[in-house]
Amino acid sequence: MAKKDYYDVLGINRSADEKEIKRAYRKLAKKYHPDTNPGDKQAEQKFKEVTEAYNVLSDAEKKKLYDQYGFAAFEEGFGTGNSDPRSGGFDAGGFGNDGSYREFHFTGGDMGDMGGIFDDFFGDIFHGREFYGTGGDSGHSGFGGTGFGDEFTGGSYRRKGADAQAEISIGFDEAISGCDKVVRLRDESGKVSSLQVHIPAGVDEGQLVRLKGQGASGIGGGAAGDLMLKIHIQPKPGYERKGNDIYVTVKIPYTTAVLGGEVIVPTLTGKVSCKIAAGTQPGSKIRLKGKGISSMKNPAHKGDEYIVVQIEVPKYLTPEERQKLLEYDKACKAHSHGGSAA
Description:
Layout: H1 6-10, H2 18-32, H3 41-57, H4 60-69, H5 108-125, E1 130-135, E2 140-144, E3 150-153, E4 156-159, E5 164-170, H6 172-177, E6 179-186, E7 192-199, E8 208-211, E9 227-233, E10 239-242, E11 245-253, H7 254-259, E12 261-267, E13 270-276, E14 285-288, E15 305-312, H8 319-341
Parallel strand pairs: 5-9, 11-15
Antiparallel strand pairs: 1-2, 1-6, 3-4, 6-7, 8-9, 10-11, 12-13, 14-15
């Protein structure tokens, strides 16, 4: 049977640009992929045809040869044959003009492009496939596979396993200093295994820790996927984290705020003495440089700690204290009136 024109296979015009070619291929590859049509030989053949067409038309050099010479450009013995480096990924032999499907590999630029296309739709194709696990004290969690990469060889394909996802909860101090946790995973066959995981110091809420090769098994000899461990951090009373900076609220006596002085404040490495300037107002922030959280990328770089000042108002006063405050209030009013009169 005569081979069908590559443009007709993808359902596009000869004037189609790179984006139109890629869009057409993505749609048809999704439609005819073997995993969405199990046992359907006709769909499998269609998938091979659209893949062959895309491999030629998506490559500028091969497309130019095809537009000029047709299928003859890829026949054995042709001047720029399939083994020519300019063909960008075909092995010698390629596709015969008798319509048979021969061995081919995606390499070089083709492989990167193909990977991007398959990433777009494999998540939809395999969305129902789940990989289950448990994360430390966080309890059970289910997570679906995404991020497949296919390589076609000899009419079959290898596929990287799904990237699995799980969640784990750690303490505030554990996130600051780093910790080791044991995660229990249940694979596709139901087998449960334990994996010790190191959580790096400085990890933040919602960040993902990638564990290479700990995801679902690959297909056809493909590499195993990765495990993406999502971190949840338990709050710590009195502390608020913003990036690598820490905010700590500290109450100080009214007299210290007015007259100035020193107060003892907590930090991540212990308590320190902090100077309070006279006239400090409620809500003022005092910066303690380098007392924050170490950066994951560069542990030598640390954030800052900010002391947020609150004024402590006494609930009960002795008669003497009350008398002194009344005298203070009277003096303030006199000063205010005197200033107005002036």
